Amino acid sequence: MKLEFYNCPAPDNIKNIKLPETPGFVKYRPDFGEIKKYAAEYQKYKNILIIAHGGSITSFYGFYSALRYQAAKDAYFLSTVDPDYIYELKQKLKPEDTLVVAISKSGETITQIEMLAQFVGYPMVAVTGKNSPLRAIAENLKIPVIIHPPIGGRYTGLTEVGLLPAGIVGLDVNGIYQGAQIFYSLYQNDNLAWRAASVFYQLEQKGVTDVFMPFYSHNLFPMSALIVQLCHESFGKSGKGQTYFAHEAPESQHHTNQRFFGGQKNIAGFFTSSETFLRPTTTSYPPAIHSVQIKGHHLADVNKIPLEKVLEYELQGTLEDARINGIPAAHLSIGGFSAEEIGQLTAFWQLYAVYASVLRGVDPFDQPQVESSKKISFNKRLQYKGLL
Predict the structure, then answer these.
(1) pLDDT tens digits, 224-243
(2) What is the DSSP annotation of 180-237?
């Protein structure tokens, strides 16, 4: 993994900051024996449906999207009570070939329970807290329960929450875990996550409140859901914290580059890419169209350029434009699509969220503004039933 900065302040020395003791998610050791057992037990199902919200779904969503070439099963994700999407899933996924995995630490998010109710009759397994409503539901419906570790959802990617479904679909869970240890082992020492957090904290102090995150990889882009959650939920508190918004690139160049370069000067870029791809491909134009002109040149002049180089050049064009225009930017690149690299990327952003919170003087692990809207919407249900 590599990290480069452009038009940015230098990172502070991590030794000048008092960090909290090693977080629970860094010290946690998953039960790989249990993961292996469940993977074998549910081998016969060709599909897996994850029903969850937030951190209970975003880590595995990122793992699966980046490493689906390893997967022996198809994974589907449900985090909405949209009736049309649920109907679509039920038409596609049948009980005889689909395992439903419900994940929630608190087990009391009503939308998740409402989603789960649509799939009663499907084989299921639940990952939830010891005394949660979801556990009570599972026990009454004779659904196996795995106890959720005592860790907040957005930090659970390297626990059974993210690794159990990864193991069931056939991903290299040991590789993902070992990759994460590269960053976890450096928690108290200088590392790339610390440097990035320090730089972007300093940028916020200078008025940079928006962070544009283009992903120059279709398969890495789904990781953005976890990244945005980690940032917003961890250090978007007490009137502090930047807004992180992600787009797939180079498509983003056709709309959000206008905002990035032409809008308010309160923005920085955080670019993500891969140095290698699984299936390198070269564009080869038929001779009949070689003479067609584009931007003053013939197509023959740009014939037989590998697509991975084309993607790299699109990235370089936007980064170079940012450098010329004095816009702060960072570029994070992984070596390729291996389990170890994806584990590293996950741990990078987990530690980034902790460091960014510490720098702003807020708790990295609570989310006080998340619950109030849930209470209002639950009461609306009671009003509908005439109970309020």
Answers:
(1) 999 999 999 999 999 999 99
(2) HHHHHTTTTS--HHHHHHHHHHHHHHTT--EEEEEEE-TTTTTHHHHHHHHHHHHH--
For residue range 53-92, list pLDDT tens digits in order. Answer: 988 999 999 999 999 999 999 999 999 999 999 999 999 9
Cis peptide before 286 (omega within 30 of 0): no
277-330 confidence digits (pLDDT tens): 999 999 999 999 999 999 999 999 999 999 999 999 999 999 999 999 999 999
Residue 69 near residue 337, CB atoms below 8 Å: yes
Cα 227 to Cα 246: distance, rounded to the nearest angstrom: 9
Q: In what order do the strands lie in the sheet with 145-147?
A: 74-78, 47-51, 98-104, 124-128, 145-147
**Measured distance CA(179)–CA(342) in Å, rounded:** 7
Strand 47-51 relative to strand 297-298, pairing: unpaired
Identify the burial level of 266 via C-beta atoms within 10 angstroms of its C-beta, where 0-12 means exposed, 13-18 middle and 19 or more buried.
middle
Token pair belonging to 136 = 């009570």
Q: Residue 320 to residues 16, 158, 269, 317: CA-CA distances in angstroms?
A: 33, 35, 12, 5
List the chain domain ranges: 2-18+187-360, 24-174
Query: According to the CATH classification, is domain 24-174 in 3.40.50.10490?
Result: yes
Residue 188, CA distances (Å) to 15, 354, 364 in order: 8, 12, 16
Q: Which pLDDT score is estimated for 367?
A: 77
Cα separation of 319 and 269, whole Å? 9
22 burial class (0-12, 13-18, 19+ CB within 10 angstroms)? exposed
DSSP 8-class letter at 108: -
Contact of 323 with 263, CB cutoff 8 Å: no
Task: Write down the pLDDT at residue 368.
Answer: 74
* Predicted TM-score of the model (pTM): 0.95
Count helices and strands (H / E) in the chain: 14, 12
**Residues of the chain falling short of pLDDT 50:** none
Question: Distance (Å, rounded) from C-alpha 357 to C-alpha 68?
Answer: 32
Q: Tell me: domain 2-18+187-360, CATH 3.40.640.10, correct?
A: no
| Arithmetic mean of pLDDT over the chain | 95
SS3 31: coil
Contacts of 176 (CB under 8 A, 6+ apart): 63, 67, 158, 162, 163, 166, 339, 340, 342, 343, 346
